[in-house]
Every structure is written in C-alpha cells, then in structure tokens.
Amino acid sequence: MSNENVQIVRTTTWSAGPGCHGGCGVLAYIKDGELIKLEGDPDHPWNQGRLCARALAMTQYIRHPNRLTRPLKRVGKRGEGKWKEISWDEAFDLIEKKMKTIRKEYGPESVIFSMGTGRDIGPWICMLAYAFGSPNVMFSLSGSACYGPRISACNTFQGNYCVFDAGQWFPDRYENPKFKVPECMIVWGYNIAATCPDNLFGHWIIDLMKRGTKIISVDPRLTWFSSRAKHWLQLRPGTDAALAMGMLNVLINEDLYDHEFLEKWTNAPHLMREDTGKLLRESHLREEGSENKFVVWDDTGRRLAIWDGSQVSYNLPDVNPALSGRREVTLADGNTVSCHTVWDAFREEVNNYPLDKVEEITWVPAKDIQKAARFYAKSKPASIQWGVSIDMTPAVTPLCHAISSLWALTGNLDVPGGNVITRFAYDAVAYALPGADGVIRLRNKEQDACRVGVKEYGPYRTFHWRAQTDLTLEQIFTGKPYPIKGMWIQTAGILNGIGLDPKRWREALKKLDFIAAVDLFMTPTTQYADVVLPAATFLEKDGVRSWWVPLQSINKALKVEECRPDVEINFELAKRFDPDFKYETIHDLFDDIIKPSGMTYKELQEKVWSIPPEEHPTVPYFRHEKGQLRPDGKPGFKTPTGKFELYSTYREDWGLDPLPHHEEPPLTPVSRPDLAEKYPLILSTGRRSPAYFHSEHRMIPWLRQLDPDPVVEIHPETASEHGIGNGEWVWVENWMGKCRLKAKVSPIVPRWMVMAAHGWWFPEKSGKEPSLYGVWESNINQLLPMGHQGKDGQGAPLKHSLCKIYKVGAKEES
Questions:
Q1: Residue 529: is its pLDDT beyond 80?
Q2: Which of 219, 318, 574, 639 is the most exposed place for a label (fewest CB within 10 A)?
Q3: Which residue segments constitute the domains of the chain, with CATH numbers given?
C-alpha cells in the first residue's frame, strides 16, 4: 500500500466504534477522506501500540452498508419497520415540539433519558437531560448493575473509588522509581483476556506477571488467569461475599492484618452502643466547657473521645484505640450505657464465617481459602482487580465492603503496587460522577427531588446520580407517583442487550407517547422509536476523555455523510430546551471541562494525551496521609468519619446493615430449592467475547467470523448426561422462557453450571415485528427478571440464576 497522500491522525479510541471504554492511542490512516487502516500508537503510554480486533475492524465499521447515515422518522406503527428519511432540521424540530409538549403537560421529569455503556455518552446525555429539566438519566440495566454500584459502594465506606496499580499514573510506567510491582494480585470475577473495562487493560496484568506478580483467581470458570494462577478459588456464583469474609477471618484470627493502618486510618476504635448496635453520635455526647466540643466519658471519668461537630476523634493520649472490650459510657442525659468498639463488632461479624461454613456456602475447599488468604496477606504489596460480576448480585455493597476491607486491613490501599485511589487527571471532570463535581450538573436540589429512586434508596440520594432502573420500568406502567410519557434512548440496546425481561420492556416502550433514539445501526430497540438519529464513530468527532489518567483528546479524522457525534446532537437540543444554556460552541464546553489542567482544548488536541506531573494531587501515592482526599484538606478519607469505615455510617443512616456480610442471592439452588428441582443447573450469563462489546458488532464481517454464534458453555459430563454434542443447538430454559444457543462443550465450566453469551440478535434478519432481527431467538436476558435489585437499589442477579438444558429437536420437557 502506498503512503502517498495519506494523512495520519493521532487520536484516542472511545465509542462508538470499538464499543469499549477505550483510552487506547491510535493512528488513523486517512486517504481521500476514507479510513484505510487503524494502528495502535506505539508512543501511547497505556496501550503502547497494542490494539484489539474491534479497533482493527473499523475499516469495515465506518462504511458498513447498513449503517445509519440520515435521520429517520417512523411512518408506520411501532415495530412495523416503516421509515422515512428526513433532514436534521426536521428531526430537531419534531423532537423539540414533542418533548416540549410532554414537558408542558406532565413536567420535565416525565421524560427518561436512557443510556447504556461504552461510548462517551455520560456527560452529553446529562447535559441534554438537565437542559430539558429532567433529573431522570437512567442506566438501563436492572439495579444499574455495571460499574456504578462499585463506585457507589466505595464512596460509601472509602470515599473514593480505587483500582489496581500498574504504573498507569506515570509516562514511564513500570520503570518509574515510585512504582512497585505487586507480589500478588487477586483477579476477582474478571475474564481479562476478553475485556478492557473500566479504564483498565488486560495486558497490564500480563505485564505485571512477566515482572513477577503471582495470581489468585476467583472465578467459577477456568479463565486464562485461572489456568495460570498460584491459587484458583472456583466458587459458586453469588457467594463472593462469603469468600471475602472467610479470607478476612484468616487475616484477623491469624494476626495477618496491618495494625498501624487499622488503628490510624480506620474507624475500628469508634464506640458503639450495645443496646442499639449503633455508633455514638453527637446526640450521645455532652458539651465540655466553652470549646463547643462534645466529649465521651467512660465510667472512671476519663475522656475517651471528642466530637468537634464533624467527626469523632479518638487519638487522645490516654486512650489506646486498639483496645477492645466493653466500656461504660456516660451520656449527655446522665445515663450510663455499655459500649464496645467497631473493631469488636467487625471481628464478631467476621467470626460468623469460619472456613468450614464458608466452604459449605461457596463450595471452595477451606484449605484453599486459607492458603490464598495467607498468600495475599503476606505479599507486600498486593492488589485486587474485580470485574463486573461484582455488580451483578443484589447485595453488591456488602460484597464490595468485604473485598475492600481486604485491601484496607492489609495496608494495600493508596500505596504503590496496591489498590490506588482514583482521581480524574488534573481534576478535569465532565459531569457529576459519584465523588466528583463536573461542569455539567443539575441546577439545584429541587430539580433532583423527583428523580426515580431518590426517596427510596440512600445511595441515589447521596452520590448515585442515576434514576433507579427497576422502579422506572414499573412507573411506566403504573404512572405513580407521576406519569412517564417519553424516552430519549442513546447508546442503549434495551431489547437486545441491556434490558432484563426484554418482552416487558417492549410493552413499556409501546406505552410511551414519544421516543427518540440515537444509534449507528437499526436495532430491535430503535424499531420502537418515533425518530432515529445517526450517530458518529470516534473517528468522526472531536471529544474529551476525562477519566482518571491520562487526560486525552479525541481528534476528528473524517466525516461520514450526515452522521453527527453524540455531543453535537445533544448540544443542539440542549440550546433549544434551555434559553440560559451557557455555551456558544462545543469547544467552549471542552475548554470549560479541561480548565483545571491549565490547557485549552486546542492545546490538548496537539498533545493528544497528558499525564499530570508527579507532584500533582491527582497523582498517587499516600494521598490519605497528605490530606489530598478530603475537601477540608485534613489527612484521611472522604467519608463522614474521615476514616476507612469498617462500620459504614452511611449504611447505618440508610437503615441498612453497616457491616460487610454475605446475603444469598434470590434465585439460587440454596435460596430456591423448589426451583432447583426443575431447573438444576446454575445459569451464569455475560460470557465475554473479544470480538464484540455487549450487543454491538454482530454485523461486522471480520468480527462475526471470529465469533459467529451465540454460545453456551457446558461441561462434558453435563453435556453427556443430556445427550448434547459440541456444536449442537440447545435450548436453555427456566420459568421465564427459553432461548436457543450453540453448545460449546468444555471443561472450563464446572459440571453444575452453564455460561451463556449475552446480547445476541441477528442484524441479517428482518427488523420488523415479529422478528425484530431475531432478538427473541437467543437473547439470554429473556430468562432474567427485573425487580430483584439489592436493598440499596443497586445490583441484580445476572450471574446466578437457574435453568435446564436440552437439545433442540429433542422431546421438550413439560
């Protein structure tokens, strides 16, 4: 291939296109306005020239014959597949008229702004929703069960999210003298070879393994990491919290925890009333002198603690915070109550999980749990990488609390080679993610008061900015407490990828007065829209990637007909809906977002990526010691107590169990033995593919060739018992329905479980009803229910339901 007249554009991957969370530096080769190839940028510090199949297939994606290139207006009934091409002005005018009518008659909250995952839609869909006046931005998966619950959970007891450290904070990465290679890494529920989620990359862990890191794999499947692990803990899906509590049991009872971190940086010494089981608060204390301070006294008259109006301080010289045992404390009303410490309560809870009991719950041998826990605790430093399976259980926050307590109690939090507190590079934040205050936000608390779920669930009131998905679905049908009349759908394949019980979602879509959808291809979901707008890939837009480090620009390389970037679509409508919208141009918005960096967007474009200098407060390590995590600048963590909270004060305030613990999920052989009699196999879903991102890419020839069929993995013994051969089509069925998948007979799954691919539809089939691109044939979400979110509104049972299997054509069981 001749490079004559070829322009090479340096840019950053994000969706649409590869589909994933992106961040890779790439070189786009453009000739005569067309993409001729895409390569990884060898000078980018993160991917260092490496690139996935989805990015390499962009040449087929950009000019795919079925790609949407003009706005469409529905001219038939919903689902009938009849459309008319219209101009952008016509489309914008129609959307403006319909949505303003709903706003006038029912209020702005009656329009839901529905998003999925992947592309950089979060800030732009919030920008549009908030300009319209609606607080209801919804991540369309039950319980928001992807990534958001982990962020929310970490904010609950830790104050910030954290990730494993692979030197990603430094341009010279592993060679930086501040970085340390972890001796051990727990890879928890994460098939790294097939995914690059959450701004992390699989090859980073492989790089660390080459430098000596040993792996503990927690996964029911024999993944790439499980096959190379020092310890493989093959647990029953849904029992992760019990396993973490068992490991904590080993750490504490074998004295393998970090005493200094425990005593100085956790709320372990804080006092709890035995009669109520709750922490001592300001109302329990009595004022001392003129200092406007409140003091806790013990029965001998010693001062045990001081409340200064914001937190309880236990670092008085005459009190050893490591002491356990009961104390008599005089309260403000003169009464005396018996108290013990958080550490007492935490240890008591942990001791409810002896290893023989944990083995019974998890099906992992006690001796293996003990060996793995000892190895992790004795490795310095050590880290944990957890996958999306953590979110996909209803009791996600207690689970995250248990796992996070492992890295806290071993002193592996906010240290080189451990789990490092995440901060946006230069504190440049696009929108109000949990723990960050971006330039795009709700106008006021009054605007947020009617957000779906904000009254029912503590995290949604405190720092989880989305509308609660399960309640939203029900409200479409009930109209209470207010009617939902419209939906803006962007990056969300509700019927084909993200929506559980998709037939119920189809009925919900039919009830709405108006639906606008933005996508690059027609999907089963867009068939129910009134207007469909053609979006652009990452190569067709300018953009900002503000997500931890580096701070990156997305630089436009080409244009495809009338396709427009998501930000451009939403920007135009935001101006129409909000007369006070403050930005004149999209680049003005980008300048505002990256203002904390001291750069303009044009300057960032020239660099493409920028990592803050090592002395910058958004660069680790030991920021909890430096006072760089709390708004008041004091040492500690951004929690109500300023500590890592072994006992969560937020959870106590929300009326939830404040200690980590295990809760059996709702649809397992243990919780529902009646269902297990008819459906004896554990159904785990979400088998990842390196060729696809969720429900995307099924129409791209190179990628479809890599992974042509919807697959269910079945153990050889299980397959033999059911007369199923490798490559044969089978029915996977439970009380909700059935779907047709191709058997992959393999020992990588245990004999008591099957693993089903998700997000399957067939773009080559008819798009109109009843086919809807074959979405009802192999979509495993048909077997998963809505409405089983956790007690705090987060999480869903995607990884541990029940099913039976039988060969297609065999006599179907009643």
A1: yes
A2: 318
A3: 72-146+428-610 (3.40.50.740), 148-258+348-425 (3.40.228.10), 673-807 (2.40.40.20)
